[in-house]
UniProtKB/TrEMBL annotation:
This is Abc transporter. It comes from the Bacteria. InterPro entries: AAA+_ATPase (IPR003593), ABC_transporter-like_ATP-bd (IPR003439), ABC_transporter-like_CS (IPR017871), Metal_Ion_Import_ABC (IPR050153), P-loop_NTPase (IPR027417). Belongs to the ABC transporter superfamily.
């Protein structure tokens, strides 16, 4: 079961500049939130703040509904943005996943440890390459292992930083489906950073759109609106509807992909939950 996240008045100042200012939002237990926005907007910094890895200049982060009774469980599992693995690395996929276990560097594993590794590999559909060397696996296969490693301590929240970058469209879709299934079947709260709005629009319950100094949280229909994006970017952004898809003008929105897949008949002007 997932934990909720409540952020109130969060301020983060790094390298002489404000990255997040007066940032407040609530994420419900079991929710899947896609985080999107241009390079340098503060997406990774937000994940690191949730992990307690960056200094906070003000505000609070709490995790209501946390249940940490299960032995060996953790609150947050994290798969960071980029991890280079040399193709000659002589490490079995199974062993790589097991490095996410607590006390992994003691010389033995318990039966429960082994079951946790096997379950994490099962839910990420990576059991079939458990015995292969990680360096010989494809990018999509490695991403499944990174997620499995983040899951091996049964977290209540899963933070994934651009897990689909550098994957071909088919592998992106497969990986997003795996994350969706983890969220649906295990009830884990998921925050996934991506530059691919297609995937986020398809699977996330809500989108958190961050630009430098501004943000909006809401459903796809609430956030992917010309007036909302124009306000976030501080310059005109067009949102066009073509059949079941929405096309966003990239003229001012750096890193925003041209084509955004959304639902049929998006509701108009519903901004009740949007924080600006
Ligand atoms: N430890 C740090 N010290 C100083 N500045 C930092 C630090 N960490 C991040 N920053 C700066 O904070 C800003 C936000 O960085 P962050 O990595 O959160 O952006 P992002 O939205 O994840 O970008 P991208 O999409 O490129 O990954 C950037 O300008 C970055 O240079």
């Amino acid at each position: 079961m997932g934990s909720g996240i409540v952020i109130e008045g969060l301020n983060i100042h790094l390298g002489g500049k404000w990255i997040l200012r007066d940032f407040s939002l609530t994420i419900k237990s079991g929710e899947f939130v896609g985080i999107i926005g241009p390079n340098g907007a503060g997406k990774t910094t937000l994940l690191k703040a949730l992990l307690g890895l960056v200094p906070v200049a003000g505000g609070t982060i709490t995790f209501p509904g946390t249940d940490r009774k299960a032995a060996g469980s953790s609150l947050v599992g994290y798969a960071p943005q980029s991890r280079q693995i040399d193709e000659t690395t002589p490490l079995r996929a199974w062993d790589f996943v097991s490095f996410g276990l607590p006390h992994r560097f003691r010389p033995w594993l318990t039966g429960q440890d082994r079951r946790n590794v096997e379950e994490a590999m099962r839910v990420t559909d990576s059991e079939r390459f458990a015995d292969k060397a990680i360096g010989k696996l494809s990018g999509g296969e490695r991403q499944r292992l990174f997620i499995a490693q983040a899951l091996v301590r049964n977290p209540q929240i899963l933070l994934l930083d651009e897990p689909t970058s550098n994957l071909d469209p088919g592998a992106q879709e497969n990986l997003a489906a795996v994350v969706h299934s983890i969220n649906q079947k295990l009830g884990i709260t998921v925050l996934l950073v991506s530059h691919d709005v297609n995937l986020i629009a398809k699977y996330a319950h809500r989108i958190l759109y961050i630009t430098k100094g501004q943000y909006a949280l809401g459903t796809v229909q609430q956030v992917l609106q010309a007036n909302v994006l124009t306000r976030l970017y501080g310059a005109p952004v067009e949102v066009l509807k073509v059949g079941s898809k929405i096309i966003v003008s990239t003229a001012v929105a750096d890193n925003l992909k041209t084509s955004i897949c959304c639902h049929d008949n998006p509701e108009q002007g519903v901004l009740a939950d949007v924080s600006l």
